[in-house]
Amino acid sequence: MAEPTHLRCPTCRREHVYAPQALPCACGAPVAPPMVRGAAPVPVSERTWDDDWVTLRCPMCGRHDRWPRPELGCACGSVLRVPVHDDQAPAPAHIPLPRTAAPPRPAFQPVAIRTARDAVTAVALYLRWLGYDDVRRADQRPPSGIGLAASGVVAQVEPSVRPATLRDVECLWLQSMTESATCAYFSLAGYADEASSRADVLGVPLFVLDLAGVPQPVNSPADELIAGGT
User: Fold this and answer.
1) What is the pLDDT of residues 90-145, one digit of tens each?
2) Which end of the chain is more exposed for a tag (fewer CB within 10 A), N or C?
3) Domain housing 223
4) Total domain count, the chain
């Protein structure tokens, strides 16, 4: 756990003892954002997606990833953004594997997609085909779409005509880090460009659902998930 420090609310002058929460890296090591000693916390007046995240380097494996920027709630009602060091070094790109290997399992038997429920059913069958037998509705509801989970995997299904966004991909990845699980995203309408790029860096498998109910891999992490299974 990070060493606690004293922070004073600039609104009401109350003093707080605070230590940022450590979250697990993909390698399993805990990562906590290093606080800027002596810097005052800043009240949050408005939110932007970029301001809510900070880039950190894992001290064990050296991997750079984005993490939620730590915040502190004061009794006066102010939400305080805690000053931390932001390591802006670029994250290592995911090394793609050849997309030629066939999955070593029987052919997937799809169901046609006519409704949102059909899309969820198709993804649940696909996850079982990959070897995740105990597929269920996820306990944690995603920001959009529908969440599924099984032992060792969390998945998100976007059955609408809206392409999945950068935020969608990062939220799924963060959930998988918190639960120490594999993740996969399934979308009917594809992905925004920045979402695809970020998924490649984070190693998030992306699939596009066709109307026949067959998930099509659209990046190398998805190919690796198919090749590996469980």
Assistant:
1) 445 455 555 444 445 688 888 899 999 999 999 999 999 999 989 999 887 888 89
2) N
3) 116-228
4) 2
